[in-house]
């Protein structure tokens, strides 16, 4: 990096592809709120609908999921005044900068992305070109705001490294110090929330069993039932985390308790040492209901007024464009495109 000082600015995005889980809340949203509340950064959060359509989305479902995701952001504590909250397709500069990054990034870089390999699978000839170019659009999301910090889950680390490579290559190719080299922020008690049925799998909206996850739309009874029925083992809880090494399901419940209560996993295990799950699970269920049920209730309330959600997103897009338009214009100028004149 050169000497350019960039404003401390956070950007992150979530795809409106439907089905929000406790994993999204603890792994992503909660940290988005913390970074907003810290007051040290400008915070910008986005529903990345252009990323969602890299695989098929039913148009009506996409519209509904985008509004539901907006409701989730707000219900979880993102304040659309203090943060900029908007929808990617309403800020055309993302797609415009992504085109330039398509011309900076190399085929080989994209081909090495594990998400591409996983999602395209054996049938990559039939995957969309958008799915292959996905990380260049993600780099554009971040760099169109000169964002310096990006909170994400573990699974997005490789894409953030690619974002740094794109910024670096652009700066080198054009002999400028224009794009910041972004820092990933991957930390916290629950960067990986696991399935309630199988402690070796990530809690995911795509798991066929609804009992494997807590959905942000679940009501109090459903949340409590899923925790009561979560897979565990017959042993009592040990007095150190070490004792949970080969007990992934038990470890997951301890981690979830820690993340929801704001304690460390060490503190939780010290308090619960010797307890049977018959005692620990009801305590966890009570805590989960206390934290999650008000968010889902608030989401339902917000979802009832679509016009209000649309108004908030339109205002967010306007504020986002105030930052994005001059950065795109400068980028065009650096590249030698007359478009911005
Ligand atoms: P996705 O819904 O997979 O697009 O993820 C949106 C955000 O939630 C990303 O930052 C993910 O890393 C995070 N996330 C999704 N599932 C989990 C999980 N089970 N544990 C922790 N973080 C997650
Ligand atoms: N790829 C991210 C995911 O699937 C979503 C995303 C798109 C994103 N653009 C971003 C995350 C920019 C952080 C910054 O979770």
Uncertain residue segments? none
User: What value does the average pLDDT take?
Assistant: 94
Structural class: mainly alpha
Can you summarize the main beta sheet? 3 strands, parallel
Helicity level, as a percent range?
Answer: 40-55%
The quaternary structure here is: single chain
| CATH-defined superfamily of the largest domain | HUPs
Strand order of the largest sheet: 1-2-3
What is the 3D shape?
A: globular
How much of the sequence lies in strands comes to 5-15%
> What compounds sit in this structure?
adenosine monophosphate, tryptophan
Looking at the overall shape, the CATH architecture of the largest domain is 3-Layer(aba) Sandwich
Could you tell me the CATH topology label of the largest domain. Answer: Rossmann fold
Number of helices: 13
Number of strands: 5
Query: Ends: how far apart?
Result: 29 Å
Q: What is the structure about, briefly put?
A:
The protein has about 350 residues and is mostly helical. It is about 55% helix and about 5% strand. The structure holds adenosine monophosphate and tryptophan.
Key structural traits:
two-stranded parallel sheet, 13 helices, 6% strand, 5 strands, Tyrosyl-Transfer RNA Synthetase, binds tryptophan, Rossmann fold, mainly alpha, 341 residues
